[in-house]
Design brief:
Two copies of one chain form a homodimer.
Chain A lengths: L3 E7 L4 E7 L2 E8 L11 H13 L7 E4 L14 E2 L4 H6 L2 E3 L7 E3 L3 E4 L5 E4 L2 H11 L4 E6 L4 E7 L2 E8 L1 H11 L13 H13 L3 H4 L2 H7 L8 H14 L6 E6 L1 H13 L3 E6 H15 L6
Parallel strand pairs in A: 1-4, 4-7, 5-8, 10-13, 13-14
Antiparallel strand pairs in A: 1-2, 2-3, 6-7, 8-9, 10-11, 11-12
Chain lengths: ~300, ~300
């Protein structure tokens, strides 16, 4: 087991762990045990049972973690690394945390930089997927979308993150649907392609998102949309507004199959070609690059 | 009391009533008794105690109501009138509702039309203020902002509403502050002009609101903003995004002194001149025009 180690993506809502043998993933775990579920900041106690089956075989497996686990609300705050950022910069700034069972354990920093509008922007977790993507599919330049609660649009140059912008697509969707007039008295949402496509299209015309969103109300009032189509329409509006900001008509998309499929469908309507890469593959590749670049012996 | 009547603006959250003598307002009531507070759709029973002091002097005072009271969730659904809309069209389409105490009571319709992006848009209540503004300050053309939960930007031509667009400024502000990451662990908000001005300015650079909003997080993370400044910054961002869509650098603004002052302050930063008109004055003037144009005797 000397070449074995564990790569972990620990976010606010989700936990994913990968048992690695050098560069290869040999097993994985996914659990709805995000950082929000951890009581009284007992992160080590929350982590141990999740990876116990692997620890049973080797107690001291090295662990490398990324994501919100390194934020103020996480296990240990790891300062952001300033752009441009490649895997070397990430490896240089990992921070160690102790584990009661004896594994060496380190947390990868996030990245910070000014976005396209000159405002500061941050990411935690996506930087690993980005450097992984660059290694899996080498190019001089990558334009990449990482969809999610806080969707990221990033540009890589020779494998280094040069700039990125966040779009609060997933969070605005959830919050408006649950707490605004738009979501009032809705039945269980069903994935509905016609309404989704209409949302994507309508987002191209509206001058401002706070204006476009109101059409989720008016199109229901005038019976263009049925109540069970509102969620899909809203998703289309938000993703459409995001894709409208792409500076070119092709990009990579890195994430879960469900989300990349949805963005690809929206892109198709706007003559934007999105090349899908699996989020887990990019993550494990990025973590491997960082792990192999760590100063000294982690084991 | 023959020339006396009551004008009411009954919205989702607020209730305002004006005792009118012909065109003049002689008394007024404001109460936090919006339609949401009415139990079991008992609108007449909710209304009577609010205006009882006036009914004591004359039981059968005519009542003319506008606002969300005419919506699906209100007392009686009054179909929208299609643009262009002046006070004559509003008067022609009022709908009567019975009152147990014997007042003749009618509800003014809202307005519907396609907005600047070709999407359907609706208003209830603001149409009265708009026709009132046109009568108080006659011009060939008015560009008007009516700030609020669902802020409206309208264009009047010879006193008739020609088109309008809704911006969900107030609702996005409230929902994001209460339910998203942006509002997490905030102290009581204080009105703070520096943060507000920064929000207004930053909204001009950001390509998309879902991107701009995230700066309320990052500017807190990098200590540009203190937690008690976030609410003001968010308000500035949303109002700035709205004002960015004005097609010219001057407009009327109709609303409460607090909101018109805030928009005027934002406009000043963007070299946009906003002419403030009092929302209640515009409302009572609009209602008077409609009341005097009603077919037949309402009394």
């Amino acid at each position: 087991m000397k070449k074995d180690w564990i790569a972990i993506d620990w976010g606010t809502s989700n936990f994913r762990a990968f048992l690695m043998n050098e560069n290869l993933c040999t097993d994985s775990i996914s659990a709805p045990c995000g950082l929000m579920q951890v009581r009284d900041r007992q992160f080590a106690a929350a982590l141990q049972p999740l990876i116990q089956p692997w620890l049973d075989r080797c107690t001291s497996l090295p662990v490398l973690m990324a994501g919100m686990v390194g934020s103020q609300q996480g296990w240990r705050e790891v300062p952001y690394v300033t752009l441009p950022v490649g895997y070397q910069q990430l490896a240089q700034h990992v921070v160690a945390v102790p584990t009661p069972w004896g594994s060496p354990c380190q947390i990868v920093p996030g990245a910070i930089g000014n976005n396209a509008s000159g405002l500061p922007d941050v990411m935690r977790g996506e930087e690993v997927q980005l450097v992984g993507l660059a290694a899996l599919y080498p190019q001089r330049e990558h334009h990449v979308i990482l969809p999610g609660t806080h969707s990221k649009h990033a540009v890589l140059h020779h494998g280094k993150i040069r700039c990125f912008s966040t779009f609060m697509t997933g969070e605005i969707y959830a919050v408006m649907l649950s707490h605004s007039l738009l979501g009032r008295d809705l039945p269980q949402a069903t994935e509905e392609n016609t309404a989704f496509a209409l949302g994507v299209k309508n987002a191209q015309h509206a001058p401002c998102l706070s204006n476009a969103l109101f059409s989720a109300r008016t199109l229901r009032l005038n019976d263009t949309l049925a109540p069970d189509q509102i969620a899909s329409y809203l998703s289309g509006l938000l993703i459409g507004a995001e894709l409208r900001e792409l500076p070119q008509n092709e990009a990579w998309i890195v994430g879960s199959p469900e989300l990349t499929e949805r963005y690809t469908r929206a892109g198709h309507l706007l003559d934007i070609t999105l090349y899908a890469a699996d989020g887990n593959d990019c993550f494990t590749r990025g973590m491997s690059l960082i792990y192999q670049s760590l100063d000294g012996e982690i084991v």
